[in-house]
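hey so u asked for the seq, here:
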Amino acid sequence: MAFDPGQLETLRPQLIRFAALQLRNDALAEDAVSETILAVLEHPDRFQEQSSFKTYVIGILKHKLLDQLRRGKREVQLNIDEDADRSDADMIDALFTSSGHAVEAAPSWGNPDQALERKEFFDILQLCIDKLPAKTGRIFMMREWLELDTDAICKELEITAANAWVLLYRARARLRECLQLNWFGTQA
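ran it, structure tokens below
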């Protein structure tokens, strides 16, 4: 085994935080992290030390999160009360006061147009990232998405710090140009 299983326990809080941020559901995040840890432990030989152990585990977690998100679109989550024996009329009556007002104010739905625009923006951003040259896109994602520091990136990619900064500058410049053309609708 090329890694110490104790490393997984050390990474676990970070993995759960990351998964909860993506899934917005603590139970689903916990499931995704458990599946990730199980996958790593079941196949320890798949870790070839071509990247850091943390990067390897996060890569597996990303795939588990994508699976969970895809599953979530197909499944409907039901909240079943412990009071399942109550009638529909009793449950509806519990939502209102005797004067006919709601016990709890309805939650704000926010602005659906802004939510849609936000999703579309991230879709365009992903397309722009996909258009970057492979090494440039990889270094950008390592820095901005995985939040690795320059030293870790340089070690991982076997490049100098100056080369890393040039690649990051090029990535940001190309992303800015792509977003200006495809999202903001203006020429750079």
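The CA atoms of residues 89 and 132 lie 58 Å apart. The radius of gyration is 23 Å.
lmk if thats what u needed
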